[in-house]
Q: What sequence folds into this?
């Protein structure tokens, strides 16, 4: 089995969206696999006493919105900040956890496509009916995916994931951990790649 990168992300994070589009390909280049770890930043923020970047004081929020758009242009990835923003993503995260069990090889495909739909929208991400239709279009069981959104099993898994994230020091997304080394943010991808290529520095 290939070595793994823990990839902590929230489907609503613009910077995680940019990372999501390339992280699996980057990992494979160096013989790594992605362990997809959906988390709810709202829960994490309550623990860390933080807040979404677009809800910071106006001077900061304005910069972050500008930087998100510029970062997307730099990466040549389509981006439009959705309205309303941010939204809850617990249903999307639970579908991800379900898919990790029933179709683990499709999780990256699902995550890339869902976030791309949302950030180039409009798209009903987190809406159960929308998710069911999306999963069905992938050739998977949309009804089962919808059921997963209300399943206590996946609710508990997501709650446990949020607790685990905080216990590992995660306070934002995207957050990558490789062999115990944490990297926070889309702008740390060059450092992550050098780490993967060299085994550390």
A:
């Amino acid at each position: 089995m290939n070595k793994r990168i823990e990839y902590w992300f929230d489907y609503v994070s613009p910077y995680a969206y940019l990372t999501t589009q390339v992280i699996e390909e980057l990992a494979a280049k160096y013989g790594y696999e992605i362990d997809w770890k959906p988390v709810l930043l709202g829960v994490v923020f309550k623990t860390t006493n933080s807040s979404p970047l677009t809800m910071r004081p106006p001077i900061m929020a304005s910069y972050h919105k500008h930087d998100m758009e510029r970062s997307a242009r730099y990466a040549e990835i389509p981006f439009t900040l959705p309205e309303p923003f941010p939204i809850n993503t617990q249903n999307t995260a639970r579908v991800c956890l379900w898919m990790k069990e029933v179709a683990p090889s499709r999780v990256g495909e699902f995550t890339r496509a869902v976030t791309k739909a949302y950030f180039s929208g409009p798209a009903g991400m987190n809406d159960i009916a929308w998710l069911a239709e999306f999963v069905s279009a992938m050739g998977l069981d949309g009804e089962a995916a919808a059921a997963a959104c209300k399943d206590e099993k996946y609710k508990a898994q997501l709650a446990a994931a949020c607790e685990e994230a905080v216990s590992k020091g995660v306070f934002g997304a995207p957050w990558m951990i490789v062999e115990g080394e944490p990297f926070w943010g889309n702008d740390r991808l060059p450092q992550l790649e050098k780490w993967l290529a060299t085994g550390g520095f």
Observations:
- The chain has a mean pLDDT of 94.
